[in-house]
Each structure stands twice: as C-alpha cells, then as structure tokens.
Design goal:
mainly alpha
C-alpha cells in the first residue's frame, strides 16, 4: 500500500467530501422533499450548519490564498531588491577600480590588480540565507493555515456525520 503524505491525505479527504457532496447535490430536491429531511432540518438545523461550515471553509481558504500570495510577493520583492543592491555594489567596485587608457603602449605596460570578489560572494550568501529564511517562514505559515483548514473540515465532517447518524436512528411513524 502506498504511503500518503499530509497533502495526499488532505486531497483524499477533499475528494471524498466532494464525492459525497456531489451525490447529495444530484438528489438534493428529492432529499429535501422527504418528511424525514424536513423533521431533521427543523430539529438539527442541518441546512444552516452546512452553509455556515461551507462559508467558513471558503473564507479560510481565500484568506490562506491571499496570505500566501502577499508573502510570496514580499519575498520576491526582497530578493529582487537584494539582487539589485548586490549588482549595484558590483558595478561600483568595477567603476572605481577600472582605468582605461587611450594609449595602447601605456596600457600594455600597466599591471592590473584583480578585484577581490569576497565581498560579492559574502553578499550573495547573505541574500541566499535571507531567501531561505523567508521561504521557511512562508512554509511554516502555509503549514499552519493548512492545519487550520484541515481541522475546520474535520469538525464540519464530524458534525455532518453526527447529524447523519442521528438521522438514521429516528423511527418512521
């Protein structure tokens, strides 16, 4: 048997809930017209609970999507800024240290000193570490939000399961 990771299990749960919801949607008019459904809806207020749970899951999902998008944009902007800063410093070093001669004989006699690239390498490492830290923060934030959504879906599924279990225990008169 294949092992499922967190996202695989979440997808399996989503597909199962979607399939159940699809079947219920196909027969929703027939289900709602039965006396038992009407009695259960009056007693447990199933329609309102399902609507509220659906709304909560949608809102949480949209909030998560917005936060991930904002964080990724911030991360991208910071990486671009660091890259531009590093590039500007590199250009400054070259501009300050290069000397151009019009006279070819003078330039042939000139001894050039190589530019120390340690500063550039250090800055590149700093940018790399900053990007890795931000990526870890985004990963943690996404993971927390996914856990929240998973818990909300589980709670809703439990409520629906309990309501369905209660519905099957009612005697028909």
């Amino acid at each position: 048997m294949a092992r499922h990771g967190f996202f695989g299990s979440l997808m399996t749960l989503g597909v199962a809930v979607g399939a159940a919801a699809g079947i219920a949607y196909l027969f929703k008019d027939e289900i709602r017209s039965t006396n038992k459904y009407k009695e259960l809806n009056e007693k447990y207020d199933v329609d309102t609970k399902l609507k509220n749970a659906s709304t909560k899951v949608k809102e949480t999902t949209y909030d998560l999507k917005d936060k991930v998008k904002a964080t990724s944009i911030d991360l991208k902007d910071k990486a671009v800024d660091k890259w531009n800063e590093l590039k500007a410093k590199e250009e400054d070093i070259i501009d300050e240290d290069e000397i151009f001669f019009e006279d070819e004989e003078a330039s042939a006699d000139r001894e050039y000193v190589s530019i120390d690239t340690d500063a550039i390498t250090d800055k590149a490492e700093e940018v790399k570490e900053t990007v890795a830290d931000k990526a870890e923060e985004v990963k943690d934030a996404v993971s927390d939000k996914v856990e929240d959504v998973k818990e909300a879906v589980s709670e809703t599924a439990e409520e629906v399961k309990d309501a369905a279990a209660d519905a099957t225990n009612i005697e028909i008169e």
